[in-house]
Structure formats: C-alpha cells, structure tokens
Specification:
Layout: E1 26-31, E2 37-42, H1 73-84, H2 86-89, E3 94-97, H3 104-111, E4 116-121, H4 125-137, E5 149-154, H5 162-165, E6 179-183, H6 192-202, E7 210-215, H7 223-227, H8 229-235, E8 238-247, H9 260-263, E9 265-273
Parallel strand pairs: 3-4, 3-6, 4-5, 6-7
Antiparallel strand pairs: 1-2, 7-9, 8-9
Helix pairs in contact: 1-3
C-alpha cells in the first residue's frame, strides 16, 4: 500500500488545549522618584525566562516560576539607584546595559541625561523588538539639550563588544563605557566567565568607571554559587564594593520555595578596576 493511502487521521496531532496557551505581551509601569512614569511592554513567555533548562548562552537555568512578563525587583531598584546618583553616575556618561529585558534602567539612564545608552539583551528578534518598542515609547521623555541617545541591540555575553562601542561618540570608542548595568544576571552561574569577559572589554579603564551588579536571590539556596561571581571579578582585575542591601515589601514569586526574606532582598554592588590595573 502506498504511503499516501495510509490515513493516520489526527493520530499525531496534539489535542486542543494539550499545552497551556502562551502568555501574551503585557505592560507595566515604573514610577521614577521624580514622579515621571516609564511605561514598558513586557514579553510573554520566552525561553530565556521560563523554567525550562536550556543550553543557550545567556539562558536562565531555573526550575521555578521566573518569566519575562513582569518587572523584576532588581530592575526597579537599579533604576532607583541610577536616579538617586544620576548627577555623578549617569549624566553626560556612556552607559551599557546587558540582560536588559524591558530595559527600564536603560530608559531611566537616558532620561537622566546619559550621553549614550546602549540597551542589550540576548540577540533574539522578539526580545530586541520588544526593547526597541520600549525605547521608542520613551523617546519623548529623553532630553535633547544636551542630547541623550538611546540605542537597542542584541548582544551575546562574552562576545566582542566592538559592535557596542560603535554606538559611542568617536572620541570614546577606543575607551569604552563609563557605566555597565548588570541587573539580575549573575545567578546565571555558568555565564560568570562571560560576564567578566564583557566587563573587561567594555568598561573604560578609568578610576570612576563602574559596573553596577544588582540582584535578588530568587533561589536562596543557590546564593553561595551566585556570590562566587565577586571573587572571580576580583581575580580578574576588579575591586568589588557592596553598596546596599535593600528589603522590598513583597516577594516577586509568591509560591516559590526558599527563605522569604532573602527572596525580598536586593543586593547591590559597584565593581571598578583595581588600582593596579590603572597604572
């Protein structure tokens, strides 16, 4: 009997409703300390943010209810830290955010007068398109005198930063960025080496240049593994300073396991070049 005569019906089709429907993109607001409101579009389900162990670089390998369609605490607190210290940290500076997701810290940096802000996440069309929509929506809030430019692109941690440096004014392309924003990236433990490599390539070799590493231990039992990032940074030519430990009102994922206080705690670090690296 020929193959075309074999009728399998719906034998190999999944029944309707077999898989849960994918979450549609939603939106969220971040109210700045100034009272301005940043409204962003959030991705729905995406492999980078759901609890399926994957092998892609930059993937969060987790087994709890992390997802992309919400503003995470570290992003909000990073934005508040940036706004509070904008006059010395951000205004007139060149800023790079990696693992930006919705990109609120980048948008706040641009609003507070960064000369250049480059917002990046994993080079996936949907993620980059979502960041671009958020950047476009915030355009009216970004100052033009002096101008503050906000750019969006995909970036794989640890890869060459030359395409990112190309967004900088010509006088800074050989030097690098003044500020790196790294919110909720260090619990991707197997990416620690790539994160360090990006810091080494992208951060300007000047005393005031700084990487902001801000995170919440959503899986508290893995906090010791997360904290291994900091001695690795010190072994790689950097000086690490813990600058705050802030407890927020609510946990982000109410039904997840682990110490609730830790899951409500946001840790903040500033990482700068060690003195011997500046000689």
């Amino acid at each position: 009997m020929a193959d075309e005569d074999l009728d399998t019906g719906d034998m190999f089709n999944d029944p309707e409703g077999f898989y849960p429907p994918e979450k549609e993109p939603s939106s969220a607001e971040h109210r700045m300390l100034s009272g301005q409101v940043v409204r962003v579009r959030l991705v729905g389900n995406h492999p980078l943010y759901v609890g399926n162990p994957l092998t892609l670089s930059n993937t969060l390998v987790v087994n709890i209810s992390m997802e992309g369609n919400m503003l995470w605490n570290a992003g909000r607190i990073s934005s508040e830290y940036i706004e509070t210290h904008a006059s010395t940290l951000i205004t007139g500076k060149d800023v790079l955010e990696i693992g930006a997701a919705a990109g609120v810290p980048s948008i706040v940096s641009a609003i507070k007068g960064a000369r250049t802000t480059v917002m990046t996440d994993y080079p996936d069309l949907d993620l980059v398109d979502n960041m671009q929509k958020n950047a476009d929506a915030a355009a009216s809030m970004i100052p033009t005198d002096p101008p503050s430019s906000l750019h969006v692109t995909g970036y794989l941690w640890g890869s060459s930063v030359e395409p990112l440096l190309a967004y900088l004014p010509e006088d800074s392309r050989s030097k690098g960025f003044d500020v790196l924003i790294m919110a909720d990236v260090v619990y991707s433990h197997r990416e620690h080496g790539n994160l360090i490599k990006t810091m080494q390539q992208a951060l300007k070799r000047e005393r005031e240049a700084v990487a902001l590493v801000i995170f919440t231990p959503y899986e508290p039992w893995l906090l010791p593994k997360t904290e291994k990032f900091f001695p690795l940074a010190e072994q790689s030519g950097f000086k690490v300073t813990k600058v705050f430990e802030q407890i927020v009102d609510k946990v982000l994922f109410e039904n997840d396991p682990g110490d609730e206080k830790l899951r409500r705690t946001v840790f903040g670090y500033e990482i700068r070049w060690a003195d011997e690296e500046l000689k």
